[in-house]
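During the second half of the funding period, the structural biology subgroup turned its attention to how the target accommodates small molecules. The most pressing case was uracil, which had performed well in the primary screen but for which no bound structure existed. We therefore specified the complex as follows and requested a full 3D prediction, including the ligand pose.
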Amino acid sequence: MQAPANDLQLIERKRDGKELSDQQIRQLVERFVDGSLPDYQMSAFAMAVYFQSMTPEETASLTLAMLDSGSQLTWAEDEIISSKHSTGGVGDKVSLVLIPLLASCGLRIPKLSGKGLGITGGTLDKLESIKGFRTDLTIAEIQAAVERVGCCITGATHDIAPADRRLYGLRDSTATVPSVPLITSSILSKKLEENPDHLVLDVKFGRGSFMKTEESARLLARSLQATAERLGLPTQCVLSDMNQPLGKTVGNLVEVKEAIEALEGQGESRLMETVYCLAMNLYKMKDAGMDDCGIRQMFDKKISSGEARDQFEKMVSFQGGSLKNLVNTAEVRTLQATEDGFIHSIDPESLGWAIIELGGGRKQKNQPINHAVGCELLRQPGEAISEGEDWLKIYSPIDTERQRRANEYFLKAIKISPTRPEERPVILEAKT
Ligand code: URA
């Protein structure tokens, strides 16, 4: 019988483009988590995967090994649990609207979310702009939230996916984040910790997201869907365009306020189209008996009756927060168009960087952020605008150096053209 390969031999195998077995991948992950495999070897393994990729079988094995590094949430036998994940984008506040909306329709959604790093903000940062809101629920509290309120949005507890947390930290500092199998296993190991019955994924592409091209997002969507289904989790992927900010606001507190307005029936059209498309996919996975028109009418009614908004308030209150006094105390100023024409585009990447410069996002992990920082688009791409008209409202700290740096980004975000640009659909594929 052949002796089992040691860690170095496994890294060599991957470096040389050979396939690893389920047991070999598990060995690497287990030894990484218990500290026997040092960070430099795991980083070398990640780089080998970055260049050589993984087969679908290997990606599924890596996902399962990472899932097994932590504990999974458990649910009563008859409980049907729904899950949603977005690969993230500038202004993406979809979860803040979709989760209470679906919970008000009877779905059970314990959402584990992350903090923001780079231009795409994190759902937890947004919610932490609500005074008292806890994003560190224990496993027992997550279960209680689902039982009593139907939903929660919280961070992964310490027990959840420790292998991913540590590996992501290494990938972030070794240029190995953009690898389809590594992203797939990272996302799915965390989603599987929720122990859901079905999953909808919003895979975003474009300047305001992490996958810059439609082609790369499609590849990721295919890998996510194939791996999830190989692991027995029915999954739908939606492909959405992030070449402009989603909705009207970018920032933390401003996005929470926009989400509340959306739950009150005042949602911006592209935001609501995204919410409804994802919510429809998820609802149909739980209840295949209702047609699209009936589901849409139910969503409209939950919003117009105030039930969806009440559901958000119940979730916030369960998690220790209150929607009273959501006041933005930052300094407010506006920017004006410098010529007449049509707004050709508003670059989400530049807005994302401006918000980071003002302290509303992070350049480094664990950096504190100012939740009041944000901006609001007073006009949308495609609209006519005249020189001197306001197009952006900025909420910022009084700090001239930060404001100067942010202004460079804000000013280059808007492009005005003499002709009206073609409208781009926000949803490219409602299902992949
Ligand atoms: N989001 C994740 O959770 N993991 C990745 O690897 C990339 C994006």
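Two results from this model are relevant to the next phase. The longest strand covers residues 198-205. Residues 59 and 181 are 6 Å apart (CA to CA).
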